[in-house]
Amino acid sequence: MLHAHRAVAACLLLLASAQAFVPLSPARTQLAAAAPPAASRAFTSSNQHAVAERDAQGTVSMASRSAALAFSLPAALTSSFTRRAAIAVAATTAVVLVVKALLDKPSRPYDREANTVGNEYDAWCEDGILEQVWGEHIHLGYYDTDERKRGSFRKDIIQAKYDFIDKMMQWGGVNDMIRSGHAPKKVLDVGCGIGGTSRYLATKLGEGSEVVGITLSPKQVERATQLARDRKIGNARFTVMDALAMEFPDDSFDLVWACESGEHMPDKRLYVEEMTRVLKPGGRIVIATWCQRDDHERPFTPREERKLDFLYSEWTHPHFISIQDYAKLMDGTGQLDNISTADWTVQTIASWRHTIWMGIKCPWIWIPRCGLRWALWWKTFKDAWCLERMSQAFSAGLMEYGMMKAIKRKPKEAREAPAPAETAPRERDPPAFNPGPGPIQQ
Ligand SMILES: C[S@@+](CC[C@H](N)C(=O)[O-])C[C@H]1O[C@@H](n2cnc3c(N)ncnc32)[C@H](O)[C@@H]1O
């Protein structure tokens, strides 16, 4: 609210200054001409001349009045225009400042008790705007080097989502499992959204496999189930379940897949431990999630903290952690081997602004859905604003796109959970992403 107050104060100041510094209008010039001599000292020379004549003769001659009018008309017209323009600029600036202050005020903070995550996804699912723009996927897209060179916005935004899944399968070793004849039979999709990835995996793996998607949003389960039915995909099913208290027995799944759900977890350790618990020994876990940069050696500045606070509290995120911290948590389970991480910021960052661009290029995909629901218009603008602020945070290196993978150790190899390693293995793809001082070029 502080921002809004400041903005309103700034606007009032602007409006006041527009009034104070703008030259007098013609009407006011004429009025001033009839005022006592002391008040009329600052007039134009023609007015002064008329006043002097009146003082001398006791009357104002018609001739001198006409001359005064003729001289002051162009200046009067100009000053009127300038005054109106200045007021218009001040008013527009005022509106922009107020709107910006309201956009900068995060409005959807995380609250576990109130299930804000489930409620927000229910709302996104019901209004359908996200589905119109991103298709069946609620995650960033993948843009390879050539596509980035050609211009990321030229890529089909929904294809970028599918490419992301393909790259994640490849990187996570799922393709290796398939190639070696050990295609995962039981797959868990943790935080499945409306099930785009679950259905894609189910189709790729075939009837011999089953994919289970869990989410906190009942509406997403409904939509995901309906889409699976429509597409006649019988080996994907969906249920409402909390990833931090899963009802599955230990060692249930050959593959645990978590794409952009970690952001919403209030307890990242429990998140990693629960996923490890339900993973079968020898099974693979692969996680993609938004991370904040490691702040151990370089703590966040107050400005960075404010930016992070906005990103936490606009889209119901309790907090983020770094890629390194995820690796430590995975190592800390004492049950995972071959832990490896990567930062896919470069490959995914175009998604943010690409989404905004889609909204501008194809307004018919969201305007009819908003209709006369003004609250939904506002929510959609807020989402666009958050997309831009996410883009900036990733571009500045404040946020990173974390990829983590590991294999669960077989029982005889299990060991005591070690003290978390100081540094965890980390790989980057491409090798050195340095956000540098300026924004990343699309
Ligand atoms: C950004 S969406 C990702 C959706 C999906 N993975 C995809 O790629 O399309 C985040 C999902 O995580 C789910 N989620 C968040 N916290 C969860 C929790 N504690 N338990 C289960 N699901 C959760 C949300 O309900 C939502 O479906």
TrEMBL record:
Stretch list, region Disordered: 410-442
Matches recorded under Gene3D superfamilies: Vaccinia Virus protein VP39
Compositional bias ranges of the Pro residues kind: 432-442
Extent of the signal sequence: 1-20
PROSITE patterns documented for this protein: SAM_GTMT (PS51581)
Region SAM motif II: start-end pairs: 251-259
Top-level taxon of the source organism: Eukaryota
GO MF annotation, one: methyltransferase activity
Keyword entries, A-Z: Methyltransferase, S-adenosyl-L-methionine, Signal, Transferase
Entry annotated with the keyword Membrane: no
InterPro entries named among the record's database cross-references: Erg6_SMT_methyltransf, Methyltranfer_dom, PiNMT-like, SAM-dependent_MTases_sf
Presence of the UniProt keyword Signal in the record: yes
Residue ranges of the region described as SAM motif I: 187-196
Stretches assigned to the Methyltransferase domain: 185-296
Coiled coil feature spans: none
Sequence segments annotated as region (SAM motif III): 278-287
BP terms from Gene Ontology: methylation
PANTHER family according to UniProt: GERANYL DIPHOSPHATE 2-C-METHYLTRANSFERASE, ZGC:194242
Similarity field: Belongs to the class I-like SAM-binding methyltransferase superfamily. gTMT family.
Protein name according to UniProt: MPBQ/MSBQ transferase
Organism encoding this protein: Tribonema minus
